[in-house]
Amino acid sequence: MQEIILQEAQNNILKKGFLDLEVSPTMDLFLEIEKLKKEKKAVILAHYYQEPDIQDVADYIGDSLKLAQIAEKTQAEIIVFAGVHFMAETAKILNPNKKVLLPDLHAGCSLSEGCPPDLFKKFINKHPDHIVISYINCSAEIKKLSDVICTSSNAKAIIESFPKEQKIIFAPDKNLGAYMNKITKREMVLWNGSCIVHEQFSLEKILKLKEKHKQAKVIAHPECEDAVLRITDFIGSTSGLLNFTKTDEALEYIIVTEAGIIHQMEKNNPNKKFIPAPPENNCACNNCPHMKLNSLEKLYLCMKYEAPEIIMDEETIKKAKNPIIKMLEISKKAGL
Ligand code: 13P
Ligand code: SF4
pLDDT class for 155, splitting at 50, 70, 90? Predict the structure, then answer.
């Protein structure tokens, strides 16, 4: 509670600052951000779903696992996390003595919001002999209740580090959980959560698009629904999808994940074509509304004023850290 009040206060100061301080349209934000990085010994970590300008100014771009691994090792004094709240929170848990900034504190995640700790506790109590594996897209409170954390790129390795007969609760993403049940041949009990971006891809429209682009391969993130995953040529985390486009011989791909990743795909494969998969309605819902709350202007202001900052109490950090460290250890052993 204290943390929320503190963060809201910071946010208000910052909002007020935004009103007073218009970022001049003539300002070279790339140059100014580079100056701030040096001056403040700060590092910028960005997720692949961030807008292209943010990806271009970042020191590291990655999926949730890679960004957590970099956060664990960084020597920088300030970590600026261009991503969503649970990612910045993970960086803070791994670096309690460092300042961790998030350009917009309201950048949440539907998976995290769809798993309230009080209901999750009751869910765990209903399955007393189960261990809890939680997808990193959850709050620190859920991490505290978990035995180990996973991301989309290490979920298989994390699950398979437990014996086949071990009963498991998997939360909060039911689509990733169902896909993992399928490929690991387990029957994990799934929390009923989903991602608002990945669950809205239209199977019908993807099939129509495939008719038009017969040579295109369909590649998808495992947060998509089973019906979509069944028609894909490849399924992987954001890094997995990017690497696939680098090594695969096809020249055209239909990308069934948040459209931000296409920036790196195009940069790495200038001769290939990437087609964003169409959503159910004619909306821009293949852009994550949380990820896209961050902007280059907000990134600059957050570095200048060192706010909003992720503030967490010691007790939460201590308890949420164990399952994250366990994830990092298993990943290291698995060569991930
Ligand atoms: P990745 O770990 O694959 O980058 O996924 C993060 C995410 O939020 C997907 O929606
Ligand atoms: Fe969360 Fe979905 Fe956005 Fe990823 S794309 S941050 S899972 S809402």
Answer: very high
Q: Which amino acid residue places its CA nearest to atom 3 of ligand 1?
A: 237
Question: What average pLDDT does the chain have?
Answer: 94
- Structural domain of 72: 2-108+290-314
Q: pLDDT tens across 172-191, in order?
A: 999 999 999 999 999 999 99
Q: Ligand 2: which residue has its CA nearest to atom 1?
A: 109
Give the Cα separation of 313 and 7 in Å (integer).
12
Q: Which ligand has the nearest atom to the CA of 237?
A: 1
Same domain for 6 and 101, yes or no, is yes
pLDDT digits (tens, 9 = 90+) for 47-78: 999 999 999 999 999 999 999 999 999 999 99
Residue (of 276, 313, 308) closest to 294 by Cα position: 308
Distance 38 CA to ligand 2 centre (A): 31
- Residue 98 DSSP one-character state: S
Contact 198, 175 (CB under 8 A): yes
pLDDT tops 80 at residue 3? no
Cβ burial, residue 16 (10 Å; 0-12/13-18/19+): exposed
Tell me: do 210 and 272 sit in the same domain: yes
Q: Residue 19: which H helix or E strand, with range? A: helix 2-20
Q: How many domains does the chain have?
A: 3
Q: Are residues 93 and 165 in the same domain?
A: no
Give mean pLDDT, residues 160-178: 98
CATH number of the domain where residue 177 is located: 3.40.50.10800
Is residue 284 one of the residues assigned to a domain?
no
Quote the pLDDT of residue 1.
45
